[in-house]
Structures are given as structure tokens and as C-alpha cells.
# Entry
Amino acid sequence: MSPLHERHRLMTRRRFLGTSALTLGLPALHSLLAAAATPTSAARTPRGLPGLPHFAPKAKRVIYLMQTGGPSHVDLFDDKPELRKRQGQDIPDSVLGGLRLTTMTANQKSKPCLPAMFGGSPRGRSGMWVSDLLPHTARIVDDLCFVRSVHGDQINHAPAVTQCLTGHNLPGRPSLGAWLTYGLGVETENLPGFVVLTSRDQEASCGQFFYDFYWGAGFIPSRYQGVPFRGAGDPVLYLGNPAGVDRDARRLLLDGLTQLNHFAHEQLGDPEIATRTAQYEMAFQMQMSVPELTDLGSEPPSVLDLYGPDVRRKGSYAYNCLLARRLAERGVRYIQLMHAGWDQHGNLPTQLPIQCHDTDQPSAALVQDLKARGLLDDTLVIWGGEFGRTPFVQGDINNPRAHGRDHHPRAFTMWLAGGGTKAGTIHGASDDFGYHATQDPVHVHDLQATIMHLCGIDHTRLTYRFQGRDFRLTDVHGHVVKGILA
# Structure
């Protein structure tokens, strides 16, 4: 008999289980340990981890205005006289440094300097240069903290967005909002602690997609992932009861499910059972809270006018900005707005003004509205994309109607407001071409560490053990940017 056949003959069920205890037991042990660190199914509102916050937070909530596609920093915030002086001339090789470019411009024969196309001027007491395309942002510069030296590692959209929102360029890590709600818990039983709102330019000029892992929970319990609200139809699917089922009947059904899930949780120790129960309960509460939240009829005309005419179009960026304020004042900890439309490779002269028109007034209005209601001091607002755009033109310098700019992660501008940041401040700088972050560079991980710090968290101490390793949002990187703290 061959050795293989002999092994099959001797491999009884008892022998298989006896020799496989380690391989089968470790996953079960991991699940039990995770369950021990997870609230039971009876817990409806997670209150965060013991010992958190690590210190008194400056920000109780965060609104991240994620401008996906890559807003052009050299056109909007970082004017460079050297680019005007050298317009049409190639950026020196000493500046390019042989660094990686996308396939769209890597083989482009020339890389001519292209200065800011639409004009601008220093604004406010800070003297921050802002494009004429952003008149509303220009009027509130003294409430903002501009960081001109942000840089990342990724040159393509999805990896760069993923790094900005999860700390890593590959999917599978918990997002920033998931880390915050996992560590700090939530403040309301009627709405999720982490809400996602998405919009895009009306011309659909940008082909970027919003992937679920941009607001996912990764390997931490899925109850901490973001809950996306839809821009058309019902904000959340299946909130309404079926015909013939009233609220009392739904409550009775959920109570029965909670008991069954509790028994299953005691037997199996699977933390996702607790997540399922919590999500059922949240959906029940949202049946009442979401219709009230999304009804803008209670907003006075002066507030609607502040956000601009597009605020009345459901699913627009303006509508989502107003919804973000309403979520914030109802206790939602982390609100992530994602707006696509900043990917101007060959339509910069036409599309950038449209994009700015759609987003400038609502972004500024959100800051003004929060400030007027006394919410800005403890609400951190972040505006920025996954990268900037190249200071050289993509395409033919002699064809102005088709000018564009390629992806550029080595220096770009973001702004923050409220939540313990220093208003009217300009932090960091790029070189004379807007190509490299040269003064007080702020890596994406540094920005994440600073956001966590403002929320009362030491980013090196909030970890989750997975596959034998302690993970954190900033991985092994990140330093708090003290220069932007109030």
C-alpha cells in the first residue's frame, strides 16, 4: 500500500481532531478574545474604550470634506511667481528629480510651467493667497488654518484616497471614522456615530468611484463602519416597515431577535452577532430620526440662502454640507462628505471654475453656520483632496482650451477650521514651483495623528490586535503637527 493510501486509512475523525487542535483552535480563540473586548448584544450605544479619551479633547466631532480627484493647489491656494516667470518653459530636471509620475505624463516630451490660471490675491489678516474662483472661502480665511505642505505617497486616486482615510494604500484597514467611533464611542442612540454623504459634479466629468472601504471598519467590529446616506430616494434603504407591520410589532420582533442573538452570542462568542443586534436597533431608531433629519423645512430661508441655491437639490454638495451641520448638532461624531469632480486632466479651463462654483459657497457656509451656532469651537472641519495637481501642464502648452494638470502628491494644500486648530494661520510651504513640500512638511500620517490628538487620542496608543499584530491608524508613522494647534 502506498504511504498516501496508508495515511488516508489511518486518518480517523479522532486522529484528525487531535492533530488539528492548534490550527482549528486558534481562530476560535481569536473570536472569543475579540468577543471579550466587544460590547455584548445588549449594548445599544457603544460608549468607547476604557481610558479614552487619553486627554481632554478639543474636538467632540469631525466633519471631513473630502474633495476626491485632487484639487489644484497651484490654481487655488499656492500661487507661485516663479511659474509665471517661467510660463511655457520646462520645469528644471533638478526639481522633477526623476520621481515617479503617472503614465499620463511620464512620457510627455516636455513639462512646461503653468501658473495659476484664474487670478487671486492675499486675503484676510493672514494674507493667505486664495484664487478668485473661491470668493466665499476667501471671505472666511481668518477662520481657517491652511496647511500648504501636505504630502503623501500615492500617485493614483484609489490608493491615495485609501491612504488619506485609512492610513494605508491597500484596502482592508479601518477608516478614520471607524477608529474614532471604536475608541470614543458615540453620543446618540438615534443616529449612527459615523455617517457618509456622497456627491459628484453635475457634469459627471470625473470618473472616480466611491468604494465602501473608504468608510469601512476593516478588521475591527463592523458596527463601527460608516453608514452611507443616499443622495436620491430614501436616504437609507429599507427603513420603512412593510405593509401591515406597525412600530409596536417591529419592536416586539426586534426584542425577540435580541434574545435569540444573545443566546447565539453566549454560545459562539462571535462579535459580529453583537454588531447585527446593534444595527437592527439602530435601524429601528433611525425610522424616526432620519425623516426629521432630512426635512429641511425647519431651516429658515436665511440659512438656506447661506448655502446657496443648490442646497434644495437633494444629494448635492450644498445639501450634504447642510445635512452635515444637522448631523453634527444631533451628536454624530464623524461625518465624511465625499465629493468627486476635481480630476482635471484636460478640461482645467472649463471644469475647475464649475467645480469651485459648486463647492465654494457650501464649504464656507458650513464653517459660518457652525460658528454662528457655537459649534465650531468643538467641531473640526477638514477640507482637502487625496493629492494636488502638477505645476506643469498636461497636454499641449499651445492649446489653452485643453490644458490640464496631472496627479501630484508631493505638495498640496488643505485647510482646517475649528476643533482646536489655530485660525488665520498658514503652516508650511512648498518650493518655488509648488512641487515639493519644503518648509514644515506634513505627511498624511501626520495629519491623521493631529486629528486624533484634537479628539483627545494619542494615536500611538489606540490599537487593535489582528493576526498577531497591534495595528493603529498611522501604522508606525505620524507626528502631531503642533504648529496648527490653538
Summary: Confidence is low (pLDDT under 50) at residues 26-43. DSSP finds 15 helices and 17 strands in the chain.
